[in-house]
Design goal:
Belongs to the transketolase family. Pfam families: Transketolase_N. Its cofactor is thiamine diphosphate. Keywords: Thiamine pyrophosphate. The protein has a five-stranded parallel sheet with strand order 1-2-3-5-4, sandwiched between helices. The chain contains nine helices and five strands. Helix content is about 35%, strand content about 10%. Helix 2 crosses helix 7. It is α/β, with parallel strands linked by helices and about 300 residues long. The longest helix has 22 residues. Strand 2, helix 5 and strand 3 form a beta-alpha-beta unit. The structure holds thiamine diphosphate. The site of thiamine diphosphate has 21 residues, from helix 2.
């Protein structure tokens, strides 16, 4: 394998195939967290369609050669969603799907937050919120300096956007004309807890960024902004195409503001921060299997 062997997925998957993969990925999330009795649920479920679209329709990566220097990079800045990333990496062939059963065990390659030293396909260690976009900007700058055409993708949570370090990179990335950098914000409207009650109606109790016009703010800093439904594969793939076509980027980094639903796809997890993390009962797991149209094992 040479340095530029990482390739885009060879065939363009059909939308119904991506939807089936996303249902399977969501099943791995709830099933694995339940078995391990630890881990996050709501965020990995909201991000799943975006992760499936990245790994099955966009990223130039080679599961046989995960450290290929010619690969695109992906950073899961909201590292507590690790089980979502591991599920997709396993389905894409970076390691056996059975290995998901070791999630969060002390001697596992699949720790509760991504560890780039342990897990094939993980490009950055994350978990302390706010740091991934800076790391991604560094990678994108490095690629530019080396004359490489790698694209760097960073996924952040909307709660995570409250971290100040994110905004230092939002300010500086256009200065370096990092049009090979794309941030995806998973706007699921919830974080770990609700907001404390307040009389000030500018602050919605549930939405981390409900009072901010994110599109205007990013555009003001010089970013190329796209707003999509993060559960609609047509819109997701269109956005990916747009941000990777140089003529549309004009030296600007891109941000995809993806509206999603926390806990998406499972009837009892969707729309509640109570399922930010949690372990399902056997009855709930059976319900999740039905919701996700997975066959009985
Ligand atoms: C610096 C830092 N502060 C606090 C936490 C604890 N924490 C873990 S997840 C989370 C909420 C994140 O919300 P969001 O980014 O919206 O994630 P999602 O809903 O997509 O899972 C917090 C505060 C952390 N991991 N890092």
């Amino acid at each position: 394998m040479g340095p530029n062997d990482a390739t885009h997925p060879t065939t363009s998957p059909r939308i119904d195939e991506l939807e089936a993969l996303a249902r399977e990925g969501r099943w791995h999330v709830i099933n694995t967290v339940t078995a391990s009795k630890a881990g996050h649920v709501g965020g990995p479920l909201s991000a799943m369609d975006l992760l499936v679209a990245l790994y099955f329709a966009q990223l130039r990566v080679d599961p046989e050669n995960p450290d290929d220097p010619g690969r695109d990079r992906f950073i899961l800045s909201k590292g507590h969603n690790a089980i979502g990333l591991y599920s997709v990496l396993a389905m894409r062939g970076f390691f056996p799907v059975d290995e998901l059963a070791t999630f969060d065990h002390g001697d596992s390659r699949l720790q509760g937050h991504p560890d780039m030293r342990l897990t094939p396909g993980v490009d950055a260690s994350t978990g302390s919120l706010g740091q991934g976009l800076s790391a991604g900007a560094g990678m994108a700058l490095g690629a530019k300096r080396l004359g490489s055409d790698n694209h760097v993708w960073v996924m952040l949570g909307d709660g995570e956007m409250e971290e100040g370090m994110v905004w230092e990179t939002v300010l500086s990335a256009p200065r370096y004309r990092l049009d090979n950098l794309t941030a995806i914000i998973d706007l699921n409207g919830l974080q770990q807890y609700g907001w404390p009650a307040t009389d000030d109606d500018r602050f919605d109790r549930s939405e981390p960024l409900g009072h901010v016009d994110l599109a205007a703010v990013f555009a003001g800093f010089g970013w190329h902004v796209l707003e999509i439904d993060g559960h609609d594969f047509d819109e997701i793939l269109d956005a990916f195409n747009t941000v990777t076509e140089a003529r549309d980027r004009d030296g600007r980094p891109s941000v995809i503001l993806a509206t999603t639903s926390k806990g998406r796809g499972i009837s009892f997890t969707e729309g509640t921060y109570a399922w930010h993390n949690g372990v399902a009962t056997p009855e709930q797991l059976a319900q999740a299997r039905l919701d996700l149209k997975q066959e009985q094992a």
